[in-house]
Structures are given as C-alpha cells and as structure tokens.
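Model: Ready when you are.
Researcher: Fold this.
Model:
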Amino acid sequence: MLKSIALCCILIAHAQLQPQSIIPKEEGGQVILDLSGQALTNLNDLAKIPGIEKVTVLGLANNNLTTLTPNDLDSCLHLTHLDISHNQLHTFDSQALKSHHKLVHLDLSHNQLHTISAFPERLQLSSLMLNNNRLKSIDATLLESLSRLTVLDLSRNQIEAFPHLHNLSQLTNLNLSRNKLTAFSRNILKGLGSLRNANFSHNKIHQIKTLGGMKNIVSLNLSNNHIWNLEEFDFSIFASLSWLNLRNNQIINIDSLVTLGQLPALLKLDLDGNNIIDLQPLNSLLEKQQCTITTNRDVFFRKGPKLI
C-alpha cells in the first residue's frame, strides 16, 4: 500500500497547484508524485506536470476532490499505486482506470462513496481499500474483473448483504467489519479457497449455518455480533484455523464447538462476553491440544490450565 512504501515523496508547498514547478521524484525504482494535502478540488492541471507520464506512485490523499472524471488520469498510464483516500468523493467512475493495466493498489478509503461503477477488464489490482465510506451494497458486477485481488477492505460502510466474491480465488485478506450484515447465505463465500484472514466483527449476524469455501482460513473474527446458535455449524472443515474470535455474542449452547477438537492448528478461542453457562463440552479441546480459551465464565474450568 502507498502509505507503507518506505520511499521519499516530494512535498508541494503551494496553496494552488503550479504544474511547471512540480517534479516527480525517482526513488527505489519508482517514480513518485505526492500531491496530498493540497486542497485540490479537481485534477485539471495534472497533465501539465512535467514527467507525469512516468509516474508510478501517485498520492492524492487529504484533498477536496468530489469527483473523478473518466479522463482525469489519462496522463499517467504507468501507475502501480494510487491513493485517493481522505477526500470527498461521492461516486467513483471506474472507467477512469480503463487504461491503467499496471495498477496493483487502489486506496479509496475515507471518502463519502455510495456508488462505484464496475471495474474495467484487464485491471491487475491486488489490493483494494474501500473502507470508511457509505456503501450500502456491492453490485454483483463490481468486482467481477478483479480476479487477482488478494486484499479487500470493505469495513466501516453500511453494507447489509454479503457481496458476491465468487471470482476472487486469490483473495487472502477480507475485512467486512462494522457493517450491517445479518446472516451468511448459503455458498456466499464459495470460491474463496485462498482466504487466510477474515473479519466479520461488529455486524448484526445472528446465525451461522455455512462458511463453506474458506477451507484454508487461519484467522476468523466473528466478535461483536448477535450470534446465539452454533448447533448447525461444523467447524471441523477449517483444518488450518488457528484463531477463532466469538467474543461479545449471545452464545449459550456450545455443543457444536466440540468439533473444534478436530482442528490441529487451533491455538486461540475467544468466548468472552457471551452467556455460556456449561463449558464442559470444551474439555476435550483442552485435553487434545495446546489451545488457549478466553471466557468470562472461567469458574467452571479452574482445573483447565489453558483457560483464562
């Protein structure tokens, strides 16, 4: 991501963009242009910057951009990283990236986006940040062309239904926390065989029947939801699961958690903030593997050396 790239960026100390005085800087094999924090309301003069056609990393964060036209970025077709976070974008026309076949990281976080058009074909994005916006739904066609995506952050929006992610076979990190999701529909996560880390915390999910498709999941965060029933869910399908967070739900009956005893990789289980009375079903889990279980009802397991 742009923010994590340890490269020097130029700072523009002008109240208004003065194209002829701006020179992109080469560093570590990248050509970097940082126009963040310049109170820009449009990109009309971007094409006038000398050497703009060679820029690979473009920073436009912390400006006053409200829209991006389809031709605004036509002068910099070699972009690999584009940061437009912390602006005032209400909509984003993805056709502005129609010719940016080298782009791998796009940050649109911290805007006011409520709609985004489908991303164009041939886009090579591996990281897409859409967190902290006003998205209520994700159209089935929006991510259709992003088959190379590995990181997707949709947290802190207003999404009510799980987006269609079937084609994202290379996705490893998914964040859908702090939305308005209520349930997992059947096969909604089908095809996510590469997913390693998933965060669905701080939603309104009340029941889990299937999470099929995430067979290689390592970290699963379902904390701060309304989950009360786990009887129909078989955790044994997650052979690589090492951390399961079910903190602050409404779980009472944990009989189905017995299947966790079949998971050789499980190291941490967080059940704190639930209404569990009988923890006896977890005896086998403590006996079979080195798993730390956190619960606010530890009085029932004082003999269990791993329960805290």
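Researcher: Now this one.
Model:
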Amino acid sequence: MYRSRNSLVIFDADGTLIDAFCAIEAAFSRNGMDIGDQERFRKRRRLLKYLGGLREFPGNLRRQFGKQSRRQLIQTLTDVYRQETLLHPGLADLLKQLIGAPSVRVGIVTRNVTLEPAETMRQLLRRHDVDIDALDFTVCIPLREDKQKSFCAIRKMLGVNPALGFACGDEYSDYLAAVGAGLHPFIAAYGFENYRRLRDANVPEAVIAVTPQSLADRLSHALGLPLPGAQAEEHQPLWSATVGAISRSPRDSMTRWAATLPSRAAAIPD
C-alpha cells in the first residue's frame, strides 16, 4: 500500500522552529513601529497580529500605509531573519538528529513572508550549522494558502503511511492541516498562539508543547530516538525487558510463561 516504511516529520518555520516574534519586533522597531509585547501578540487574531494592539494600531497603520513603507518593512524583516534571528533553543540539534536518522524524512513547509523565503531559510539555518539541502524538502507557500494540500502532496510523494507522519506547528490552522492530512499533530504554545488560545480552539492538551524542549522530547520519543543532545541509556526500560522476555519464550514453554502474564503486566509502569 505504501512504498516506504520511513517516518515523516514536517515542521512549520516561523514560531515553531524560529523565534519569529523577536525578528518581527526588531523589524517593526527599526521602522518606527511597535508590535507590542509577546503575550498580547499571541492573543491577537491573524488579521490584527501585525498591526499591533489598540495602543500601537494607529501609529503602525500610518507607517504601513503605502507600498513603499510595506516594501521597506519586508526588506528589514528579511535582513533581520538572515543575519540575526535564532532558532528556538535545542531545535537545531533536533533538526540535525532527524536529518541523520536513516528512517526519518524531514523538512519544512512555511508561509514565511520575507523576500525569497527559501534563501532566507537557507541563510538562517546555515548560521545554526544546519544544511537546508540535507532536508528532504523545503516548501514555501503563499500566506493565505492552507498547508493541508502541501502536507498531503509531500506524504504521497515520499510514499509514507500517514500513521507514521508528524506535523509540528504553532497555530490552530497547523493543527487542522495536520489532522486533515492524516498526520499526528504536535502544536507549540510558545510560538504565534499561546496555550489558552489553542485550548479555546479545542486543540487537545495532549498534543500541545509549552516549550521547545518539550516539543523536541515528545517528537524524539514518538520516533524512538534519543533525546536531542542526550546520551542514549545503556539499560533497557522495564517494559522493554519484560515484553522482550515474553516474546523470546520458546513455544513449548507457552503455558508456563502465559500463566505469569498478570504478574508481568503488574510490573509494567503506566
């Protein structure tokens, strides 16, 4: 049914991998505008995110009015992304680990608004010693385009079973796109939308990561990989040793070990 037994990981860039708020804040400031504080930014609806709150809206609107002003703002944002902006802590290591994992296909789908966003991603990742050409795909789509279509196209192109697919984003729309494409969602509450906004949109608590480290830990665990930057444990977990002992029992001992299943099950931690 599926050509590949590999896992698939699709990352959103802005907010999920990249500390985009700091980039936007810097670009606005250098153009005489104010985006407001990060928590209020996360609470705004998408239409108003880049116009500021009630305090910042009038001045920002005046400065964004006109093609020349908007062009200058995008140019500044592009320069900030390429020269200064950082990945969230620990996520460069996570990307490198996934790139090096032979059974994982990993890449980025982004609606980044900088000039030539693919080149912006290349320069930003290069500063973190991540080679964009080592990714399996980098897809840049228009700001208003739904990601679900891209998710489905990538999964089909790589022949991956959707049960082995994961999509990491930071907005409710990312959650909907992942679920719509049949992928497992991991949603960051440290990016463009906060925890409360995600929960109010009925994103399940179980798929929300409140820190970059939490996202990295959850994804690594789901893929059966060591935690990024950590040494793999030398000993087997209790559940693995127990189940392994059961599966290795010879057929002529089936009655004997089957009788011990209740006690074995009791020994496996929840």
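Researcher: Key takeaway?
Model: The two ends are 34 Å apart (CA to CA).
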